[in-house]
Amino acid sequence: MTVYGALHCGGALIVGVSMTATWHYKTTTSSCAGVSGPTGTASWSRGIGSATSGYYVAIDVCFAHEGQQFCGQTGFTPQ
Predict the structure, then answer these.
(1) Partners of 29 in the β-ladder
(2) What is the pLDDT of residues 55-78, one digit of tens each?
(3) 26 lies in which domain range?
(4) What is the pLDDT of residue 22?
(5) At 49, phi and psi to the nearest 5?
(6) How far, CA to CA in Å, does 36 sit from each of 27, 51, 75?
(7) How many domains does the chain have?
(8) pLDDT tens by residue, 30-44
(9) Model-level pTM?
(10) Domain containing 32 — which CATH number?
(11) Contacts of 68 (CB under 8 A, 6+ apart)
(12) Is residue 36 classed exposed, middle or buried when 0-12, 13-18 and 19+ CB atoms within 10 A define those classes?
């Protein structure tokens, strides 16, 4: 599974902004961090083969920019 994120400011994508994605599985939490690339997009992939079937995995996505945090959430339910 891959999560993508981008931060927009005034309609423009921000390049080089720090992003953290935190994956909340049923019995564990896993995080990854990096910086948005030249297109303004950051992405991280995780294997989900051991995720608990039927349990919603929430993914928090946060950007840090100019002293502020901008966060959103997405997720999925493994079948």
Answers:
(1) 24
(2) 999 999 999 999 999 999 999 999
(3) 2-76
(4) 96
(5) -60, -30
(6) 29, 27, 20
(7) 1
(8) 999 999 999 999 998
(9) 0.88
(10) 2.60.40
(11) none
(12) buried
